[in-house]
From TrEMBL:
Organism ancestry: Bacteria, Bacillati, Actinomycetota, Actinomycetes, Micrococcales
Swiss-Prot/TrEMBL keywords: Cell membrane, Membrane, Transmembrane, Transmembrane helix
InterPro entries named in the record: ABC_transp_permease, LivM-like
Residues passing through the membrane, by range: 16-37, 44-66, 86-107, 114-134, 165-185, 215-238, 250-276, 288-311
Membrane topology: Multi-pass membrane protein
UniProt GO molecular function: branched-chain amino acid transmembrane transporter activity
Annotated GO CC locations: plasma membrane
Pfam family, one: BPD_transp_2
Subcellular location: Cell membrane
Name recorded for this polypeptide: Amino acid/amide ABC transporter membrane protein 2, HAAT family
Keyword hit for Membrane: yes
Length: 337
């Protein structure tokens, strides 16, 4: 990017114009896109929120968490139960976030004092315990058969198709979560998270409690996971114990790494990978889905260790290196003069 272009991008009115353009696109796109595309974009939004929660605890704070999918599953079950019980949908959304958040808080109060492999083992246990627990609590969860909740059909007054209505819901709620999280990580809490991630001893010497901020990050990640579970029910309208399986937890972690740890836009890219990668690999060869996804993961990490979000930075760096003269070229120019 040239100096002139960089200067233009720093002007406030240019930023606001870009924001306005994005808002217009988000408002218009669901009305003109095909049903399948709207459904795919809605699912990407669902898992982008899940990846964002994982990014808060891992990308921004540096903790190890392998159980984020558990909170997504809890949020989905709370949503299904509340909808089938006839609760107000706003109350259902609040509970779908709060109940996973409270569970995350209780777990983090004990787990945040641990480190390294110990805390990893605690979070690994969440989906491992969650699946059989969901099967046993059949009165609440529907057992192995799962549970459905149909509440997101487009109302008649909207004049919208169901896929359009669902995508608008995802855009509104996911957009709010991303905005609130952006404000969080760019404020004093985000700076504290970064210091804790960099060096806990330094954080303590500055009066920042690593324990307190680890608990805070894990709780926020759990809340965001619950919101993702609510959105999952908006789009899919069905959940089962398989939703919170350990395999999905690993895929969610891989999605965060591929998108870019510690990045808001990387969370969006991670959500896109979570949804699109299985579709692409299934189209190539359904029997090699896991192998192909592993190859994609390794290839991206070798080329872009920081994830897909670092691709523009790598491209600009290579452009600068190709534009600058090599030492031999510079010496030749001096001899010519």
């Amino acid at each position: 990017m040239t100096t002139t272009a960089a200067g233009w991008m720093t002007r406030p009115w240019v930023r606001w114009a870009a924001v306005a353009l994005v808002v217009v696109i988000l408002l218009v796109a669901p009305l003109i896109l095909p049903v399948f595309v709207n459904q795919t974009l809605a699912r990407i939004g669902v898992f982008a929120v899940a990846v964002l929660g994982l990014n808060v605890v891992m990308g921004y704070t540096g903790q190890v968490s392998l159980g984020q999918i558990f909170f997504v599953g809890v949020g989905a079950y709370v949503t299904a139960y509340g909808v089938n019980a006839g609760w107000n949908i706003a109350l259902v959304l609040i509970l779908a976030a709060l109940i996973p958040g409270v569970i995350g808080l209780l777990i983090s109060l004990a787990a945040a004092r641990l480190g390294g492999l110990a805390i990893a083992m605690v979070t690994i246990a969440l989906p491992i315990i969650g699946v059989p627990l969901a099967k046993r609590l059949s009165d609440l969860t529907g057992g192995s058969q799962g549970i459905s909740a149909r509440f997101s059909a487009a109302p008649d007054w909207s004049g919208l198709a169901t896929d359009q209505w669902q995508l608008y819901i995802v855009i509104a709620i996911a957009g709010t979560v991303f905005l609130l999280t952006r404000n969080l990580v760019r404020g004093k809490y985000g700076r504290a998270f970064a210091i804790v991630k960099g060096n806990e001893a330094v954080a303590s010497s500055m009066g920042i409690s690593p324990y307190r901020y680890k608990v805070l990050a894990f709780t926020i990640a759990s809340l965001i996971g619950g919101v993702s579970g609510f959105l999952y029910m908006v789009v899919v309208q069905y959940t089962s114990p398989e939703t919170m399986s350990f395999g999905h937890s690993i895929t969610l972690l891989a999605s965060m790494v591929i998108g870019g740890a510690g990045s808001m836009f990387g969370s969006l890219l991670g959500g896109a990978y979570y949804v699109l990668a299985p579709q692409v690999t299934n189209a190539i060869d359904p029997s090699l889905t896991a192998v192909l996804q592993g190859i994609i993961l390794l290839a991206i990490l070798f080329v872009l260790p920081g994830g897909l979000v670092t691709l523009p930075r790598l491209w600009r760096r290579r452009r600068r290196s190709s534009a600058s003269p090599t030492p031999n070229q510079s010496q030749g120019k001096r001899q010519d003069t």
